[in-house]
Write a structure and sequence with these properties.
The complex is a heterodimer of chains A (252) and B (200).
Chain A lengths: L4 E9 L2 E6 L2 E7 L1 H10 L5 E5 L4 H17 L4 E4 L5 H10 L3 E4 L1 H5 L2 H10 L4 E10 L4 E6 L4 E6 H11 L3 E6 L11 H8 L6 E4 L5 H9 L4 E4 L1 H4 L5 H10 L7
Parallel strand pairs in A: 1-4, 1-12, 4-5, 5-6, 6-7, 7-10, 10-11, 11-12
Antiparallel strand pairs in A: 1-2, 2-3, 7-8, 8-9
Chain B lengths: L7 H10 L10 H6 L3 E3 L5 H10 L3 H9 L4 E4 L1 H4 L4 E2 L14 E4 L9 E9 L9 E7 L1 E3 L7 E7 L1 E9 L2 E4 L7 H14 L8
The chains are: A alpha/beta (252), B alpha/beta (200).
Chain lengths: 252, 200
């Protein structure tokens, strides 16, 4: 039986791991290579690196970070942040990424998903969606540019369109919950995972094993967390043990 | 062997962890002449077969595998051993093994299958062992080929997740991304393929 993937996420800026709340107030949280190898040792099923660097110069270090993390780990590595073209994706894949995630650039040019899927395959093409609750219109809207730009665009519909265009997976982050440790947005997860066949990775708001188990019940194929693992108050191994006790199938 | 833009960096990194130098062949010809060949697979069944056909290498790769020269085929690299695939109707595979590659069709399944699943080898396997491996696939082989050691995995129904015959090993999963279990499988394949000085 396939197990639920537990995916630690490293938000990287200028070659260092950082963490903020709702994408703001970033603080230093360590060295990406050290953290990724520790996570693999602790039983992580996959690693995601999101490069949140502001400038092009900083971003040039992303490929170096990817190469050094790849040299240290033997599990899948997904890299996202600033991917605007197949050439950007190819650079990251060449450095040792196994999958590439796109976000803002795909919103601005949805054809990018088709291009990446046909060139590298669907299993390599991940669409990251940052979604914020909009109570006025009773839906979730897509936010881009690290949350500074709130669009008149339905997040659930966007997931459906991405599947049609050849994406192989959806990385779904709740902007409202990101870094807050108040649990995943389960209604959002249900809404998206019920309209696509693609695996959906839950992201934004995890603080304890029960949050992860709730996300799986809501339809998530994998669960991503950053804050709880960085601060070492929960190891991946401990979270997996707790999930097993909650009857979630995990690789131990 | 370069089979389009695959995650060859991860494959090369995995061999390096075992103390073995792996390199991307500059031409398919060079790849086919190497003592130990890895056929990675990303893209589509039709695209890989077209590329082999363009280089006139379909027969050479088929003969290499049929005659038991050390070869490791990964993911789509395994699928092209079959006769055909639902992914690319009308395109002939290498036909080293019988049968066709089919899409995961159970409506309740998430497709592609992305993640770790249990691999269970039959009693005749010498290189494959039980354990959890990382998969990234929408299509799979369902019919066990005659004369090969076979490992199976459950996703909806049971499918063929790897086959081996002497130093030829074909895996639907990614050994290079399957942690310590995957590295130990690569080490056993290297030994079986006659490589010396593999780090333990």
């Amino acid at each position: 039986m396939k197990s639920t993937r537990i995916i630690p996420c490293l938000d990287v800026r200028g070659g260092r791991v950082v963490k903020g709340v709702r994408f703001q107030n970033l603080r230093d949280a360590g060295c990406p290579v050290e953290q990724a190898t520790r996570y693999e040792r602790d039983g992580a099923d996959e690693i995601v690196i999101l490069d949140v660097s502001a400038t092009t110069e900083e971003r040039a270090t992303a490929a170096e970070t990817v190469a050094s993390v790849r040299a240290g780990i033997s599990i899948p590595l997904t890299v996202g942040g600033g991917v605007k073209s197949p050439a950007d994706a190819e650079r990251l894949l060449g450095a040792g990424a196994d999958k590439v995630s796109v976000n803002t650039a795909a919103v601005e040019d949805p054809g990018l998903i088709d291009q990446l899927a046909s060139r590298f395959g669907s299993q390599c093409t991940i669409l990251a969606i940052d979604a914020a609750r909009d109570d006025e219109t009773d839906r979730w809207v897509v936010v881009t540019r690290s949350g500074t730009n709130r669009l008149d665009m339905d997040a659930v519909e966007w997931a459906r369109e991405a599947e049609r265009r050849g994406a192989g997976e959806i990385l779904l982050t709740s902007w409202d919950r990101d870094g807050t440790r108040s649990g995943y947005d389960l209604a959002l997860l249900e809404a998206v995972s019920s309209v696509v066949r693609l695996p959906v990775i839950a992201s934004g708001g995890a603080n304890e094993a029960s949050h992860l188990a709730d996300a799986v019940s809501a339809g998530a194929d994998a669960v991503l967390a950053a804050s709880i693992f960085h601060d070492a108050d929960h190891t991946v191994a401990a979270i997996k043990q707790e999930l097993a006790e909650l009857n979630v199938e995990v690789r131990l | 062997m370069r089979t389009g833009v695959a995650n060859t960096a991860s494959v090369i990194a995995a061999f390096r962890k075992l103390g073995v130098r792996a390199a991307l062949a500059s031409t398919p010809d060079e790849a086919l002449r190497s003592a130990r060949l890895v056929v990675p697979g990303v893209g589509s069944f039709g695209a890989i077969m077209d590329s082999l056909s363009d280089h006139g290498l379909v027969d050479a790769l088929r003969d290499r595998i049929a005659s038991g020269e050390p070869t490791l085929a990964i993911c789509l690299g395994m699928q092209i051993l079959a006769e055909r695939s639902e992914e690319s109707p009308g395109v002939a595979g290498l036909g080293v093994i019988g049968g066709s590659i089919e899409r995961f069709d159970e409506p309740v399944l998430r497709v592609p299958q992305l993640g770790w699943n249990q691999v269970t080898p039959d009693g005749t396997c010498e290189t494959l062992r039980s354990g959890a491996a990382y998969f990234a696939n929408s299509f799979r082989l369902t019919q066990a080929p005659d004369g090969w050691g076979v490992a199976t995995t459950q996703y909806g129904s049971r499918f063929i997740s790897a086959i081996e015959r002497g130093p030829v090993l074909a895996c639907q999963f990614h050994p290079e991304l399957s942690g310590a279990w995957g590295l130990s499988l690569l080490r056993r394949w290297l030994v079986r393929a006659g490589a010396e000085a593999v780090a333990s």
